Fold each of these.
Amino acid sequence: MNNILTIDGPSGVGKGTVARIMAQKLGWNLLDSGAIYRAFALAIDEREIDISDENALVEVANGLDLEFKIQPESQLVSVFLDGEEVSKTLRTQQTGELASRLATVKNIRLALLKRQREFAQPPGLVADGRDMGTVVFVQAPVKIFLTADAAERANRRLKQLQQQGSKGIISQILAEVKARDERDCSRKYSPLKPAKDAVTIDTTELSIDEVIFQVNKLVTNN
Ligand code: C5P
């Protein structure tokens, strides 16, 4: 299947929003690969698996009972782990942090690869994450790499938290964003970097509509 649009970039850059809007516009399927890493982290945490036991980690990754369901009204994706809805729990800072640590392990990445590739179904797929264009869907004809200043990404995170009725401290969020960037970019396997054939868009000064306009142009001109 060749209708694949990949959107990679660091945390808090807005990939998820751009990917969701593009999938809606194109009528394509949507893969939030970060949610797979987060659900895996949640499973490890809930089962109290020793994170230094690689065999046990890979066994859980291979047997992960995970389901994504699209809510028809909002087009938002609900995630079910072992039959239980975990969409909200997935988004916590703690789960993101554990996901990012576990995502450095090569055999875990390999175990989760097939599950991600299964999303490539007609009529097309919009996939967002860190290595969609470099590893998971190298054949994708349009690859986007979104960037934005860390301070702007931390601001966006804070606003998102506030909209959800939660609080946050900007200096703390910024430190977390930077720590996650550092780990995601410096890991040995599938580090966060633009694919050679990706188009990089710096979104620091752009609205979501402006980003969508640029991405849409790249897809329709392809
Ligand atoms: O994108 P999100 O913040 O939900 O991802 C959580 C963590 O999962 C990231 O910090 C990253 O370490 C890992 N991840 C990854 N590869 C992907 C998607 C997410 O390593 N394709």
Amino acid sequence: MKKHIAVIRGDGIGPEIVNEAIKVLDAVAEKYGHTFEYEDAYMGGCAIDKFGDPLPESELKKCVESDSVLLGAVGGKKWDSVPGNMRPEKGLLRLRAGMGVYSNNRPAKIWPQLASASPLKPETVAKGIDFIIVRELIGGIYFGEHKTYEDGEKISEDVMKYSESEIERIGRIGFETARRRRKKLCSVEKSNVLDTSRLWKSVMHRLADEYPDVELSDMLVDNCAMQIVKDPSQFDVIVTENMFGDILSDEASMITGSIGMIPSSSLGKTSCGLYEPIHGSAPDIAGQDIANPIGTILSAAMMLRYSFDMPREADDIEEAVGKVLGEGWRTGDIMSAEEGLKRAKCSEMGTLIAKAVKAI
Ligand code: NAD
């Protein structure tokens, strides 16, 4: 298969970690006879330096016209003093809006080799943590009307609004994601209090008729926050609205240990997605070849699974990461005092995983 990938290396450690993800994608291409073509696109600080704009139209066009976008990270002190609408992060928001990606998908997976890094009890971790949160990204209270006014005292309002169609499109991503995994979908809301949540729940149940192979359950958001720390092994896919997803996905990433390990995808109406690790540009370690590239490599695996329909290839990358960790290789952020561990540079980690992909 031939795929055209727009590559935004970005700032700080971005170029280093993206190089390693490309190394691993090339290993997959060689093994399975695929062709991955890469086209550099500029967004963030590097785009400000090159074009005076964090996301020029020409660069957005490259992304929208690609089969998917692989992103490192953007931002850094150098651009902290530029005006608000010219900041690197504005480029990222414009990219998400321009690509129309309304669904943010963030897996929470613990690698048994890194279990000691989790703040949860060992017996809870031993049951396994491997779920995805599908979060609605461009609706709800963050996008409703916000106002503050005087009426004898200051009063503020933030409007939470969802239409059936907005819920349906994210609901479908939840069901489709579950269908590609263990076929369990948990819809999280606050239907004991909120109208938007009651509508949410009714749309999810209507959609369930179309996905008889997926088991749908409902959970109130406060209970879900507890269950994620009490027994995360019960979850496969969680689908929820913007604010609940924002909070739950940060909670979920914490229980797995290191920020350098976690990938994400953002998808919209088409299969063209945006794939990036959840961390930032880590300027404190940039240019030293010591960053952990695994979050970016696993983002590339998500691209293969969710945008290119290449589940075997994605499985290979995930298995290769497990194998390399199992052999004791660690970048600095996941190093511990455990016996037998070997320190790998960012570039070595990419090479080891690429080799392991070919060997599987
Ligand atoms: P950060 O995620 O970049 O770094 C936080 C800490 O984690 C740092 O100590 C860093 O060294 C470490 N870290 C992060 N990724 C790592 C990796 N792959 N390997 C090893 N260690 C890693 O967050 P920050 O320091 O708050 O932000 C730095 C810059 O990144 C800021 O300009 C911020 O705006 C930007 N940012 C960008 C994105 C994005 O591009 N999506 C997301 C968050 C922050």
